[in-house]
Amino acid sequence: MRIADLVEGPVSQPAVAGNNLVLTLDMDLQRIVERALRGSRAAAAVFLDVETGRILAIASKPSLDPNQMSRGLSPEAASRILSDHLRPFRDKALSDTYNPGSTFKVITASAALEEKLITLEDKVRCAGFIQVGRRRFRCTKVHKSVNLHDAIVQSCNVFFYDLARGRA
């Protein structure tokens, strides 16, 4: 995007009636998400209805107030926005990709239990990392000996890396 495109001011077009748009956002949940992200400099959150895939709440930080844009920006303000390393023009909830993180541990654990790959009593030693070939995958801390319950509660990555290797 060029600075000139931001500075020249708003382009006005008369409104044209079209199809109705029905949103699936849950405004109470949306307010909760916005409040939860308030203290974050950069963040994204998306809440979906797992049965329908409908978006219930979505937020990205930092974001720009469209009203500020419609009044036109000074060249200095446009340059500041475009050079911001937090990328306020990029909607992180829609455009970025993220690892599923610890939320996926419950799904992995459920599948492993169902397939009888592990039991609730199986333990793994966590030294704070696991070596796979020449690569070292880190954990959140040294958990020592953890079973499935401990691995989920304490978010032990090593337990799940070990499970993926078929050794848990």
Feature tags:
168 residues; two-stranded antiparallel sheet; 8 helices; 6 strands; 36% helix
Describe the structure.
It is built from 8 helices and 6 strands; from the N terminus they run ααββααααββββαα. With 168 residues, the protein is of the alpha+beta class. The longest helix is centred in the middle third of the chain and has 12 residues. The protein is elongated.
Question: Summarize this, please?
Answer:
Helix content is 36%, strand content 16%.
Please give the number of β-strands.
6
Summarize the biggest pleated sheet: 2 strands, antiparallel
User: Which ranges are low-confidence, i.e. pLDDT below 50, for 5 or more consecutive residues?
Assistant: none
What structural class should be given to the helix and strand makeup? Answer: alpha+beta
> What is the overall pLDDT average?
88
Strand order of the largest sheet: 1-2
Rg over CA atoms: 23 Å
Strand content: 15-25%
Measured as a percent range, the helix fraction is 25-40%
Q: Tell me the overall shape.
A: elongated
Question: What is the tally of helical segments?
Answer: 8
The string of secondary-structure elements, in order, is HHEEHHHHEEEEHH
Compute the separation of the termini in Å.
50 Å
